[in-house]
Design goal:
- The protein has 14 helices and 24 strands.
- By secondary structure, the chain is an alpha+beta fold.
- Strands 9, 10, 11, 12, 13 and 14 form a 6-stranded antiparallel sheet that branches.
- Helix 12 (432-442) links the parallel strand 21 (421-425) and strand 22 (447-450).
- The longest helix is centred in the first third of the chain and has 20 residues, at 114-133.
- It is globular and about 95 Å long.
Length: 529
C-alpha cells in the first residue's frame, strides 16, 4: 500500500493551466494475482467529488472499497489549496483521527495492515500541519500571468514534440509562474521567449506584435524590403554560420545586386547574424520604402558589402509564357512554362488561370519552375498539387507517434492531369515547394530536374495571442507519398540540369530552341524519366 500526496491534476481529465489541484493517491495491492485497488481523490474543496476508482476486481471487497472512497470524500472537505500547499482547517485533525479509526475498524482490517494506516495518516498530518505553519499570501493570476499561460497552452496543444525536449511541461509552467518576473509586458515577453527557448527548435518562435504583423505580411501580395527569403544553414551548408539566402525575388534589390540562393548573409547593418533568428533578421531587412540597408554577403571565399535601397517587392506568384520546341514547321510542339515564385494567398488561383490561358494557346506540355521558391502557405501547396493530380496521396502529416493525417486528392479539382509535366528545383526550393515537388515526383506525375532541394521537412502554424503577439510553432513534420522524410535532405531530382541552365523565362525558352546552346535540352530528353 502507498500514499502519494502531490500538486498536479491526476483525477481530472481537464488541463486548464489556471486550475491547480492536489491529490491523495491511495493504492493497495491485494494478494490475488493482477488484483489492484487504486483510489484517487482531489483535496481541492471546490472539486470535492472528483473521485476515480480503478480495477476493483474483487467482488468480495467492493463494500470496503466504497467506504474507503466515502471516507476520502469526507476528508476532502477539510482541505483547501493555498499557493501550492495545503492549509489546515480547524477541524481537520479530528477529521483525520476519525478517518484513521474508520480505516482501523474491523471492516477494513483485512484491507490494510496497521503499520500502513499509521503511514497514511501520519504523512497527511505532517504535510498539512507544515503547510499550515507557513503564512503564505493568497495568489491571484494577473493579466501578465494569463498572457504567459495563453502562450504555454498554445504550445501545449500544438507543439509536435509532446516530450517538450525532454522536460516536464506542467512543472515548467508552475515553476515559471512562481519564479519568473511578470510585472510588465516586456518581462512577460521575456518569460515567454525563455519558455520557447527550452524547446531548442529554431523554427518555433515567439513574435512580438510588430514581428507577428511582419510575418503575416509575407503571405500577402507585396512587402517593402530587399526581396530575399532567408533560412538557417542546413547540414548541406556544413559549418556555415549566420543565415542562408534561400531565394532572391526576381527584379528585387537583392537580385539586381547579384545575390543568389545559397549565399550566406553574415550581417545586416553591421549586426552579425550568427546568433540572429530568422524573424529578427526579416524585421531588420524590411523597412520604409526608400530607406537604405547594408548587407554583408559571402559566396564561397568571396565576401561582399552591399548597400541596398528598400522598395516594394511584388510577390505576384506566377509568370508564364509559351516556348516553342523544334519540330516540323507549323506543327512545332508548344510548351507552357509556369514560374511559381511563392505560395501566398493568390498562388493556386494564379496557377490555375495560367494553365487555362496556356491551354487556350494549344500548348501540349508544361514546365513548372519551382527554383528559388522558398515556400509559404502550406494549404496553397496542397491545392496546387490537386491541380496536377487526378488521384493519390499528396503528403503525410506526422508527429512523434507516426502518421497523424493524410492529404490526398480524388481528382475533383484537377485541371491538368494528362499533359507531360516537368518540375524544376534547386537548393532554393523549400517548404511548400518541396511538398509539391515530392507529391508530383512520387505519384509519377512529373519528371523532376535540377539539384537537391533545401530540406525543410517541418510544418509551422502561426497562432495569434490576445495582445496581438503570436507564436510560430512547429506542429508537424511531413513525409512525401513514398514516406520519404526530406528534413535536412531535400527532394532528390530525377536528373540534373545543365550548369548553364538559366533561371529567367526568356532565356529558358532559348535553351529549348537552339541545339547549339550550352544549355540545350531537346523535348524528348526534357520529359524523359
Amino acid at each position: 500500500m502507498e500514499v502519494i500526496l502531490r500538486s498536479s491534476v491526476v483525477c481530472s481529465s481537464g488541463r486548464s493551466p489556471t486550475n491547480f489541484s492536489s491529490e491523495v493517491l491511495v493504492s493497495y495491492n491485494f494478494p490475488v494475482k493482477k488484483s489492484r485497488i487504486r483510489v484517487c481523490c482531489s483535496l481541492l474543496g471546490k472539486e470535492q467529488k472528483i473521485v476515480n476508482g480503478f480495477s476493483a476486481q474483487s467482488r468480495g471487497r467492493r463494500n470496503g472499497y466504497k467506504k474507503i472512497i466515502h471516507s476520502l470524500w469526507c476528508l476532502d472537505k477539510r482541505f483547501v489549496l493555498h499557493f501550492g500547499g495545503f492549509v489546515l482547517k480547524p477541524d481537520c485533525v479530528s477529521g483525520l483521527r476519525k478517518f484513521e479509526k474508520a480505516l482501523r475498524s474491523e471492516k477494513f482490517s483485512n484491507f490494510f495492515p496497521s503499520f500502513s494506516l499509521r503511514v497514511i495518516v501520519g504523512v497527511m498530518i505532517v504535510m498539512t500541519l507544515s503547510a499550515a505553519v507557513t503564512k503564505s499570501p493568497s495568489w491571484a493570476l494577473t493579466e501578465e500571468n494569463l498572457l504567459f499561460l495563453e502562450a504555454w497552452r498554445t504550445l501545449d496543444r500544438a507543439y509536435i514534440d509532446k516530450t517538450f525536449n525532454g522536460q516536464s511541461w506542467f512543472r515548467y509552467r508552475e515553476n515559471a509562474l512562481r519564479s519568473e518576473p511578470m510585472n510588465t509586458r516586456e518581462e512577460t515577453y521575456a518569460a515567454i521567449r525563455k519558455m520557447v527557448s527550452t524547446l531548442d527548435d529554431p523554427f518555433t518562435r515567439f513574435l512580438e506584435p510588430q514581428r507577428f504583423k511582419s510575418l503575416r505580411s509575407g503571405t500577402r501580395s507585396s512587402l517593402t524590403g530587399v526581396g530575399i527569403s532567408i533560412g538557417y544553414p542546413t547540414a548541406k551548408d556544413k559549418s556555415a554560420s549566420g543565415l542562408v539566402v534561400i531565394s532572391a525575388a526576381p527584379g528585387g534589390p537583392a537580385n539586381r545586386a547579384g545575390v543568389l540562393s545559397g549565399d550566406l548573409l553574415l550581417a545586416i547593418n553591421d549586426k552579425s547574424t550568427e546568433n540572429m533568428g530568422i524573424y529578427d533578421a526579416a524585421e531588420r531587412l524590411q523597412g520604409p520604402e526608400g530607406s537604405p540597408v547594408e548587407l554583408i554577403v559571402r559566396r564561397g571565399t568571396e565576401t561582399r558589402h552591399l548597400s541596398l535601397i528598400r522598395e516594394e517587392v511584388s510577390l505576384n506568384p506566377v509568370k508564364s509564357r509559351i516556348c516553342k520546341a523544334p519540330g516540323s514547321g507549323k506543327d512545332d510542339p508548344l510548351i507552357g512554362y509556369i514560374k511559381l515564385s511563392s505560395f501566398n494567398q493568390n498562388a493556386s488561383g494564379a496557377v490555375r488561370k495560367a494553365i487555362e490561358t496556356l491551354r487556350g494557346n494549344n500548348v501540349n506540355a508544361f514546365i513548372l519552375d519551382l527554383r528559388d521558391n522558398s515556400g509559404g502557405l502550406f494549404p496553397e501547396g496542397v491545392e496546387i498539387a490537386k491541380i496536377w493530380l487526378d488521384k493519390g496521396v499528396i503528403v503525410y502529416i506526422c508527429d512523434s507517434r507516426g502518421v497523424r493525417d493524410i492529404y490526398d486528392t480524388d481528382g475533383s479539382n484537377v485541371a491538368a492531369a494528362s499533359e507531360p509535366l516537368v518540375v524544376l528545383v534547386n537548393k532554393g526550393t523549400a517548404s511548400a515547394s518541396e511538398i509539391l515537388a515530392g507529391a508530383l515526383k512520387d505519384n509519377k506525375r512529373a519528371v523532376v530536374l535540377g539539384e537537391p532541394t533545401y530540406g525543410k521537412g517541418k510544418i509551422q502554424s502561426v497562432f495569434e495571442l490576445s495582445d496581438g503577439s503570436g507564436l510560430a510553432v512547429t506542429v508537424a513534420r511531413y513525409e512525401t507519398p513514398a514516406h520519404t522524410d526530406i528534413d535536412k535532405v531535400g527532394v532528390i531530382p530525377d536528373h540534373p540540369l545543365p550548369i548553364s541552365f538559366p533561371k529567367d523565362e526568356d532565356s529558358f525558352c532559348g535553351c529549348l530552341q537552339d541545339p547549339a546552346s550550352a544549355c540545350y535540352l531537346n523535348r524528348v530528353a526534357l520529359f524523359s524519366r
